């Protein structure tokens, strides 16, 4: 392969605006994610979960005594991944727990359409997690590693930062 052919075979990276729109679309139309939390002495903990998105915040639920809930109490942050390793939306979040009776009814209804409804179980068995995006990155290959950050400090970006 000649140098010109090699360069021609490298995909052109999407613009920041296209990546930002892609992230929003994935959040709006998806309902499954990988959720990673961490704790002192136990390392990272990764689980597949369903989610509900309200346009600014992700919500999911887990057992109240789960390692995920314990980790969030100790370290109120999490990392979320949507997609696969070749086409990913990676989201760093601040995180908090919400007792089932305290969740917004619209969020609970939305979540119940994509997963088990925590409201139908004994009180205290489940807890919702509120995950507020602080940084979002989008890429679908090494050619998009530069310019992958589409949100920083909880704000969608208009100009590249990396």
Describe the structure.
The chain is built from four helices and nine strands, in the order ααββββαββαβββ. Strands 1, 2, 3, 4, 5, 6, 7, 8 and 9 form a nine-stranded antiparallel sheet that branches. The protein starts with a helix and ends in a 6-residue tail after the last strand. The model has no long low-confidence stretch (mean pLDDT 94). Strand 3 and strand 4 form a beta hairpin. It is globular and about 60 Å long. The longest helix is centred in the N-terminal third of the chain and has 14 residues, at 16-29. With 162 residues, the chain is of the alpha+beta class. It has helices at residues 3-8, 16-29, 67-74, 105-112, and strands at residues 32-39, 43-50, 52-53, 58-63, 77-84, 87-99, 126-139, 149-152, 155-156.
Keywords:
162 residues, alpha+beta, 9-stranded antiparallel sheet, 22% helix
**Beta-strand content:** 35-45%
Q: How many distinct beta strands?
A: 9
What would the average pLDDT be, to the nearest integer?
94
Which ranges are low-confidence, i.e. pLDDT below 50, for 5 or more consecutive residues?
none
Radius of gyration: 18 Å
Give the ordered list of helices and strands.
HHEEEEHEEHEEE
Quick one: overall form? Answer: globular
Give the proportion of residues in helices. Answer: 10-25%
Q: Give the CA-CA distance, first to last residue.
A: 31 Å
Total helix count? 4
Structural class estimated from helices and strands? alpha+beta
The major pleated sheet works out as: 9 strands, antiparallel
């Amino acid at each position: 392969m000649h140098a010109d052919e090699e360069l021609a075979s490298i995909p052109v990276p999407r613009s920041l605006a296209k990546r930002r729109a892609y992230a929003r679309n994935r959040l709006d139309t998806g309902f499954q994610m990988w959720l990673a939390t961490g704790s002192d002495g136990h390392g990272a903990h990764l689980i597949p979960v369903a989610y509900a998105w309200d346009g600014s915040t992700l919500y999911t639920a887990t057992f109240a005594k789960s390692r995920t809930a314990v980790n969030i109490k100790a370290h109120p942050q999490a990392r979320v991944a949507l997609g696969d390793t070749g086409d990913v939306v990676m989201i760093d979040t601040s995180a908090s727990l919400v007792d089932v009776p305290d969740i917004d009814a619209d969020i609970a209804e939305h979540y119940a359409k994509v997963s088990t409804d925590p409201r139908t179980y004994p009180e205290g068995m489940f807890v919702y997690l509120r995950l507020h995006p602080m940084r979002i990155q989008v890429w679908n290959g090494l050619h998009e590693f530069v310019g992958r950050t589409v949100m920083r400090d909880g704000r969608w970006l208009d100009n590249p930062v990396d």
